[in-house]
């Protein structure tokens, strides 16, 4: 069927004629000799126009005689259209017999619309109450919404308004809703569309808005009429502050200022139109909900203009002091950052952390803090708070044995240095930058004191005095760490991250878990392990000792030979495939940073049961002086990521370690040395008198030619004139402690026999006291009626205390496992701190959800712990806090959260959501109460 859309017509052709002809030819493409009743002469009286592939000839006939003449004389392929003022009663039967449908067609807008829209009937509400204006408006805009609106058999009022909104406003949402209106207002042409509305449509806008939005409709209509179509979201965000329920109680503004500001708003933006405060409050809440959705879908760029405009509105009305009440305005974020800076400063001066904790929680509830561009700033803020906690609550006595100090550095001190490194990166916010400098200095002073005390033990380490089992001398790593795994018939990949200290390792640990690597240990309650560097803590000494299995000094060639010839390992391996060591030149593809094909084949293969890989990314960065801050991850070290994936293919256990640590250059001082003295970056071999920042060491583990050296215990000294990012060779805890972790892939079915998974252990001060895992001094006896024990915070007596399973003492013996329903009901009988949690766990909807889930991975106790944590965090909690609070290994966390979502997200409503970019978990408490009928 050929198209019947009118492709060209003169401006002089009335739209009603055009629409009527279009409708007729759509209905009957073969129609000819069409007569239309039309009272006004056509100018010009004869016109030829095209309708798709057909042409029509329009002729104005002022008399019946003229009609007869046209019918007789018309020739050619053009379809004849006669316009005249006559109806059927005024024309002879012979004339009527020659016309299409045997009568002149009346031009009724509703009838025309009925034909164009192919509907059977029209809702009486339209013809009876709307009159001609709506039909004419629909006809005039038909081209713009044709093909987009489905009318069905009946053209009803809702569909008619939907068509008008599409055609005239470019409002394409399927229904009229406040969030959709806010989104529409963000279009660049929204204001132009409103300005270009025909007068008849503009006058009736309220009839579209008010029935569906009875409270906010009049407000929106007024804003549209007053020219604020493009600012709806901005005005709504401003209203969310001006009409916030907590505004008066907040004390940000005096009551008189609040009401006078609101009055000025009504005059300026509503032209004095009186709107109830409840409508303005609802309008503000709707703007916030829409903004939050847009932030999650598209990021801050989608709403940045509206945020700026909202702040301009507030500033013009003197409401900016209250912007801190907004969870989304940038000005509110700045006020919260200011509050955190002030609280941290006060915490440093008065040695308390409570106010800073509150300021941090308030900051985290601001939505812009979850944006990608704020991630680093938020991480620095959290690290600053952690340092404050550590300075006040987390530091032990500075004296201790070598075992205690080394173990404490692994369990706590390394996290301190991770936090210090983050703060050294700098901060855009001036007040925070100042307080970060203060915190860094306080932490550095404490670190220097600890390093000074540790310096007393360097002579014993140099002599090779016996250390605890968990502190492995670097030269014994192959025998004590690698050999047991090989003996258990598990292939091994030994990754040596040259120069990596314990702080960098802690940063990488997060990514290892995220990429599916589980840390394992021979003992479930094993104390934290590390290697202890040879002295000086430099590559030529310590790395060669690590890879040869004995104390020696050497280069890469000697390392290869010694690694391949290690006696204890060779006894466990095929003589054809001895231990294989790959250095930088072996693993890097020439001309790129990728893993070389041959190296990949050797790691992913199964012939070589023991493969060692040296990755120099960290050491290379230390030796540079560029002004680039590197965040250590599997993304920033692609070689490490590729090596790990190759190891996953062959089912290898992966040992991640280093040859020594390092100190970063932060206000280091150059120590002048004699020209004839052989120096490293952080050691002098002999012939000098040590200063009060240095220690002279000697013994079998000092690998200089004379087995003597002077090394600084302080992180502040260097022996090179030029500055680098960092240095190594000295005797600080950061350099002597070598990180050590053993991992298997989560997808590897062949585990190491007898070994167990290790949940990631974090210091007590790493998370807020309300959300940190607690140390239980004594486990309660199993009780048939499980109750929540009142756990007590216990200060660490020794550095190798572990965080126990919080739930082990809360569960009755599994003599006869109760059903899911019995278990849940039994637990919810106890008194939980939040009554709504008790109501949730005992609700019929939750019980049905449990039945659908079967034997869920989430117990009622765990669900209670999770919900309490979310309640404390005002609905938002970091994944790391959940993992620690519930003692769940990070690798198992996603599965746990997925199970929790299955229980809470009834009928697909997103009550519990995970935001992958920010690694946070969000609870919509309001939706939860609705879905579970609480």
UniProtKB/TrEMBL annotation:
Residues 179-328 form the Alkaline phosphatase-like protein PglZ second domain. NCBIfam families: BREX_PglZ_2. It comes from the Bacteria. It comes from Modicisalibacter ilicicola DSM 19980. Residues 33-103 form the Alkaline phosphatase-like protein PglZ N-terminal domain. This is PglZ domain-containing protein. Residues 773-833 are annotated as: Disordered. Residues 833-933 form the Alkaline phosphatase-like protein PglZ C-terminal domain. InterPro entries: BREX_PglZ (IPR047992), PglZ_2nd (IPR058881), PglZ_C (IPR058882), PglZ_N (IPR058880).
């Amino acid at each position: 069927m050929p198209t019947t859309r009118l492709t060209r017509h003169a401006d002089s052709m009335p739209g009603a004629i055009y629409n009527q002809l279009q409708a007729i030819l759509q209905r009957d493409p073969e129609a000819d000799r069409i007569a239309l009743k039309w009272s006004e002469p056509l100018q010009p009286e004869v016109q030829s126009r095209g309708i798709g592939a057909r042409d029509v000839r329009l002729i104005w006939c002022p008399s019946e005689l003229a009609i007869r003449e046209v019918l007789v004389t018309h020739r050619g392929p053009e379809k004849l259209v006669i316009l005249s003022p006559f109806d059927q009663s005024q024309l002879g039967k012979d004339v009527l017999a020659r016309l299409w449908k045997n009568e002149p067609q009346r031009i009724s807008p509703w009838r025309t619309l009925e034909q164009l829209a192919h509907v059977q009937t029209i809702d009486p509400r339209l013809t009876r109450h709307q009159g001609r204006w709506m039909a004419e408006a629909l006809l005039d805009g038909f081209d713009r919404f044709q093909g987009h609106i489905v009318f069905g058999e009946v053209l009803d009022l809702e569909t008619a308004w939907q068509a008008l909104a599409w055609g005239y406003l470019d409002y394409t949402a399927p229904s009229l809703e406040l969030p959709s209106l806010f989104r529409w207002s963000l279009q660049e042409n929204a204001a132009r569309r409103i300005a270009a509305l025909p007068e008849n449509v503009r006058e009736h806008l309220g009839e579209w808005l008010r029935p569906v939005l009875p409270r906010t409709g009049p407000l929106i209509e007024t804003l549209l009429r007053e020219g604020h179509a493009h600012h709806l979201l901005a005005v709504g965000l401003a209203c969310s502050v001006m009409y916030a329920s907590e505004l008066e109680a907040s004390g940000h503004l005096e009551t008189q200022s609040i009401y006078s500001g609101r009055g000025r708003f009504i005059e300026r933006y509503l032209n004095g139109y009186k709107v109830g405060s409840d409508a303005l409050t609802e309008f503000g809440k709707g703007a916030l909900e829409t903004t939050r959705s847009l932030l999650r879908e598209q990021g801050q760029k989608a709403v940045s203009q509206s945020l700026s405009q909202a702040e301009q509105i507030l500033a013009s009305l003197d409401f900016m002091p209250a912007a801190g009440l907004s969870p989304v305005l940038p000005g509110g974020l700045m006020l919260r950052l200011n509050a955190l800076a002030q609280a941290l400063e006060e915490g440093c001066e008065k040695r308390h952390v409570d106010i800073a904790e509150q300021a941090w929680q308030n900051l985290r509830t601001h939505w812009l803090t979850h944006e990608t561009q704020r991630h680093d700033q938020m991480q620095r803020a959290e690290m600053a708070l952690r340092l404050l906690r550590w300075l006040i609550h987390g530091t032990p006595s500075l004296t201790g044995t070598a075992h205690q100090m080394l173990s404490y550095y692994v369990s706590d001190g390394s996290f301190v240095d991770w936090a210090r490194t983050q703060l050294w990166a700098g901060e855009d916010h001036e007040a925070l930058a100042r307080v970060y400098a203060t915190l860094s200095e306080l932490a550095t002073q404490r670190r220097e004191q600890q390093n000074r005390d540790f310096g007393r033990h360097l002579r014993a380490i140099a002599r090779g005095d016996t250390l605890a089992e968990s502190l492995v001398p670097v030269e014994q790593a192959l025998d004590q760490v690698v050999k047991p795994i090989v003996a258990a018939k598990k292939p091994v990949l030994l990754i040596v991250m040259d120069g990596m200290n314990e702080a960098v390792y802690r940063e990488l640990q997060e990514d290892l878990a995220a990429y599916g690597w589980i840390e394992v240990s021979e003992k479930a309650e094993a104390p934290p392990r590390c290697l202890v560097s040879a002295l000086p803590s430099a590559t030529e000494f310590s790395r060669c000792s690590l890879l040869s299995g004995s104390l020696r000094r050497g280069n890469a060639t000697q390392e290869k030979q010694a690694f391949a010839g290690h006696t204890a390992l060779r006894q466990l391996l095929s003589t054809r495939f001895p231990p294989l060591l790959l250095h930088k030149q072996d693993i890097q593809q020439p001309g790129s940073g990728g893993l070389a094909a041959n190296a990949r084949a050797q790691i992913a293969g199964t012939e070589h049961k023991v493969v060692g890989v040296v990755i120099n990314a960290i050491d290379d960065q230390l030796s540079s002086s560029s002004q680039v801050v590197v965040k250590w991850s599997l993304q920033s070290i692609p070689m490490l990521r590729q090596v790990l994936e190759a190891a996953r293919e062959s089912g290898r256990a992966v040992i991640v370690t280093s040859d020594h640590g390092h100190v970063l250059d932060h206000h280091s001082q150059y120590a002048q040395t004699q020209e004839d003295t052989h120096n490293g970056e952080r050691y002098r071999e002999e012939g000098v008198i040590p200063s009060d920042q240095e220690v002279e060491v000697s013994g079998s583990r000092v690998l200089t030619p004379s087995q003597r050296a002077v090394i600084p215990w302080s992180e502040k000294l260097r022996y090179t004139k030029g500055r680098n990012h960092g240095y190594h060779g000295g005797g600080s805890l950061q350099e002597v402690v070598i990180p050590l972790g053993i991992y298997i892939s989560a997808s590897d079915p062949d585990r190491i026999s007898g070994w167990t998974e290790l949940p990631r252990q974090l210091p007590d001060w790493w998370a807020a006291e309300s959300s940190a895992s607690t140390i239980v001094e004594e486990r309660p006896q199993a009780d048939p009626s499980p109750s929540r024990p009142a756990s007590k915070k216990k200060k660490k007596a020794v550095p190798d205390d572990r965080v126990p399973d919080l739930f082990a003492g809360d569960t009755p013996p599994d003599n006869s496992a109760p059903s899911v329903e019995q278990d849940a009901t039994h637990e919810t009988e106890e008194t939980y701190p939040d009554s709504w949690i008790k109501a949730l766990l005992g609700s019929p909807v939750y019980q049905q959800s449990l039945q659908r889930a079967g034997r869920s991975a989430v117990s009622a106790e765990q669900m209670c712990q999770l919900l309490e944590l979310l309640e404390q965090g005002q609905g938002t909690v970091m994944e790391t806090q959940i993992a620690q609070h519930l003692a769940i290994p990070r690798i198992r966390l996603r599965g746990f959260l997925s199970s929790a979502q299955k229980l809470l997200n009834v009928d697909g409503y997103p009550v519990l959501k995970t935001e992958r970019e920010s690694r946070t978990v969000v609870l919509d408490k309001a939706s939860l109460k609705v879905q579970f009928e609480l």
